[in-house]
Amino acid sequence: MPARASPAGAPSCRSSTRTASCSWPRTPRRSCTRSRKYNEFENLRIAGVRHADVKGYSYSRGDVTAKALANAYSQALGNIFTQDIKPFEVEVLVAEVADGDHSKNEIYHILYDGTIEDEKNYAAMGGQADEIRRFLKENYRDALALEAAIQLGVRALSVTQNKTLTEKDLEVAVLDRTKERRKFRRIPPEALAQLLRAGG
């Protein structure tokens, strides 16, 4: 469930049949610098879409996997980090939902230097990710319902905020394995408000 408080900017997300990736600037900056950051992760988003399209058309949709996409992002960021004067200041999260009894959910966190971290159950990125991860480690449990998972995500984000987060502060999406083709689904603000009230 990609969820992030929005005051520091908005994530750039793309999805294929079973996978989704989101990129986020590593540190919020003021307007002129932030627009340069936006260009950086927008370029990565476009590259990810092209990678998925080419692989999907050349072979099949089933060949567009989170691991392959994460490796592509890792190689691109690693090359930029070692060869360019200024590395991209972004992090990328790639997730794939299990599509069958013998498959498993996968989450890959790609750092600005191309390092890949294989995450389990949950992930957090950004300047205060360590605090969020600590909270999730203590409170996460398997097989959460959508409502409970969203409420847990909001509580985790609230650890780093000085206010109560509402649907106006959040962008929330899920990878829904029950959907036939495109699994990525954004939750509109009205539905999100109802889910948050249910836990209040």
General description of the model:
With 200 residues, the protein is an alpha+beta fold. It has one domain: Glutamine Phosphoribosylpyrophosphate, subunit 1, domain 1 (4-Layer Sandwich), CATH 3.60.20. It has five helices and eight strands. The chain has helices spanning 31-58, 66-83, 129-139, 146-158, 189-198, and strands spanning 3-5, 12-15, 19-25, 90-96, 106-110, 116-119, 170-175, 184-186.
CATH superfamily: Aminohydrolase, N-terminal nucleophile (Ntn) domain
Radius of gyration: 17 Å
Q: Roughly what fraction of the amino acids lie in strands?
A: 15-25%
**What is the H-and-E element order?**
EEEHHEEEHHEEH
Search tags:
8 strands, disordered N terminus, 200 residues, five-stranded antiparallel beta sheet, Glutamine Phosphoribosylpyrophosphate, subunit 1, domain 1
Summarize the helices and strands and which ones pair or pack.
Elements lengths: L2 E3 L6 E4 L3 E7 L5 H28 L7 H18 L6 E7 L9 E5 L5 E4 L9 H11 L6 H13 L11 E6 L8 E3 L2 H10 L2
Antiparallel strand pairs: 1-7, 2-3, 3-4, 4-5, 5-6, 7-8
Helix pairs in contact: 3-4
